[in-house]
Write a structure and sequence with these properties.
By secondary structure, the protein is an alpha/beta fold. It has three domains: 4-47, lambda repressor-like DNA-binding domains (434 Repressor (Amino-terminal Domain)); 61-158 and 285-309, Rossmann fold (3-Layer(aba) Sandwich); 160-282, Rossmann fold. 44% of the residues lie in helices and 20% in strands. The protein is elongated, with a radius of gyration of 25 Å.
Length: 316
């Protein structure tokens, strides 16, 4: 690979001069510019612009580690980020952790080597502080999203606790008495360690004494058909709240096969739920993208936490 040192040697100038020509800063004579330009063309040297802008503390490229490639929720967010950041000349690079801390570490190292300016990720565990530190040491902004696991990072989370409260209040207000919450069982961290808590939101409803509530935790990566069937048949709910869109689809598959009539409210609203008339908790992707941009652009001494409101969309 041709380096800046190779260009300096061919042009018979210092490395500092080559750097100034590439970055367009400081005084450079026309003769030096010509020599550096000709040497770069002869050697086929292409400046690593993202690395140069990183040194100048300008935002150029953002990495987004998606924790579950099978969840369309994350790709809706990626699309919103790409639109918003792209308008500002910022590239978005995607990586994947597959809800696995080993893959999360690998994705971090890939993005660090790609000289991104910021890394967004949904934590899979609490054991990857070392690679997070490496990112920070390289001047990379790190923001955790949707789960508040690390206490020393900037955080953007959806208010799932209030979302579940609103969903439960809506169901109770419409006469439902047996509510089943299908929440997440995270592969590498206890669900009780994850903030926000949908379970706490549901259980905080004032008149919960008049309603029977059951909380069941499902495998985040799917394959929950048997557990859903057993839970529904033993608890016999008249309403179900699902914590993810994938859980919502799994419940719909069960209801179709069993021909049961149970009211469903799901998180992670999307077009398919809208077309199917399923009530859902919806996040504002454009607001999220704006919040991401603001957070990665500002330097701060202490970690910040931004909680984004969600909206319950009631359908028939």
């Amino acid at each position: 690979m041709v380096t800046i040192k190779d260009v300096a040697k061919r042009a018979d100038v210092s490395v500092a001069t080559v750097s100034r020509v590439i970055r367009g800063i400081g005084y450079i004579s026309e003769d030096a510019k010509r020599k550096v330009t000709e040497a770069s063309e002869e050697l086929g040297y292409v400046a690593n612009v993202s690395a140069q802008r990183l040194k100048n503390k300008n935002l150029e490229t953002v990495g987004f580690i998606i924790s579950d490639i099978n969840n369309p929720y994350y790709f809706g967010i990626a699309a919103a980020l790409q639109r918003f950041l792209g308008e500002k000349g910022i590239e978005l690079i995607l990586a994947f952790s597959s809800e696995n801390p080993v893959d999360e570490d690998r994705s971090f190292r890939y993005l660090i080597s790609s000289h991104v300016s910021a890394i967004l990720f949904t934590p899979t565990n609490k054991e990857n502080q070392s690679v997070i530190n490496i990112a920070k040491q390289n001047g990379i902004k790190v923001v955790q999203m949707f789960r508040q696991i690390y206490s020393n990072l900037d955080t953007i989370i959806n208010d799932d606790e209030n979302g579940c409260y609103e969903a439960g209040k809506y169901l109770i207000g419409n006469g439902y008495k047996r509510i089943l919450l299908l929440d997440v069982d995270y592969p590498y961290i206890g669900y009780d360690k994850v903030v926000p808590s949908r379970e706490r939101g549901l259980l905080s409803i004032a008149d919960i004494q008049t309603v029977q509530v059951r909380v069941e935790h499902l495998n985040l990566l799917g394959g929950n058909a048997v557990q859903i069937q057993n839970t529904v048949e033993t608890f016999a709910p008249d309403a179900i709240i699902t914590a993810t869109s994938n859980f919502g689809v799994e419940v719909l598959e069960y209801l179709k096969a069993s021909k049961k009539s149970i009211r469903l409210v799901t998180f992670d609203d999307n077009k398919w739920f809208e077309l199917s008339g399923i009530s859902a908790v919806r996040q504002n992707d454009e607001n999220l993208a704006q919040t991401v941009f603001e957070m990665i652009n500002l330097d701060n001494a202490e970690p910040r936490v931004k909680i984004l409101k969600q909206t319950l969309i009631c359908r028939n």
